[in-house]
Amino acid sequence: MFESLLVANRGEIARRVIRSARALGIRTVAVHSSVDCDLPFVAEADDAVELTGPPAQAYRDARQLLDVARKTSAVAVHPGYGFLSEDPGFARSVSEAGLAWVGPSPEAISAMGDKVAARETVAAAGVPVAPGSTSRRESREDAAVVEAEKVGFPVMLKAAAGGGGMGMAVAADAAIRAHRVPQGQPPSPTGSSVTRDCSSSGTSHGYGTLRCRFSGWPTVGW
After folding, report:
1. What pLDDT is stored for residue 194 in this prediction?
2. pLDDT number for residue 215
3. Ramachandran quadrant class, 216 (left: phi over 0; alpha: psi -120 to 50; beta: rest)
4. What residue ranges do the domains of the chain occupy?
5. Which CATH code for domain 4-110?
6. Contact 27/3 with Cβ under 8 angstroms?
């Protein structure tokens, strides 16, 4: 068990990590932007360091976070979720700096960070997956429609990368292109995937997607 932990996140996420670390007797170091200095997670940590630079970028500044870890004698880094938690490069940098990375290995992050690659990885390991295609078709609307018709509409269009419900839209028919970029969001540079829509069940899109994945609903990737 390590003695000190840098929490590379903010808000309620950081509070949960700090609370758990305290219960284990681990000293915590919080980092915060200039606009977050009065938030509870800053006061609840044993130490707190203000990050420099624009708040939107400060929490993603890997070099600065590692510098704070060294200066505060933290021996481990917990990324929480979001921000750098899904960045295999940051996980690798933490380990190369001689610090303990509290999270999946860089290899696991790379494999699971992309929905199409994750599907291929678990399928290769013998884990049952819903029927559908895992090929990357990006902007080929015709190919996406063919695959979607095989499994049946409605479908939920999802970016192959990202999370938190971002980049999702429902397509009730073959007019998929009209749903390609929901709410003005840019398309994923890694392509997209299609999941059978469960939103009619009364669940939110985020929870509905999870329900689809584990209830045998078919998926299509392009």
Report:
1. 53
2. 32
3. left
4. 4-110, 115-221
5. 3.40.50.20
6. yes
Alpha-carbon Rg for the chain, nearest whole angstrom, is 20
C-alpha span between 1 and 175 (Å, rounded): 54
Instruction: Say what the pLDDT of residue 118 is.
Output: 85
Strand ordering across the sheet containing 100-101: 47-50, 27-32, 4-7, 76-78, 100-101
CB 188 within 8 A of CB 221: no
The Cα 206–Cα 222 span in angstroms is 20
Residue 201: pLDDT band by 50, 70, 90 thresholds? very low
DSSP assigned state of 135: -
Query: Considering the entire predicted model, what is its pTM?
Result: 0.70
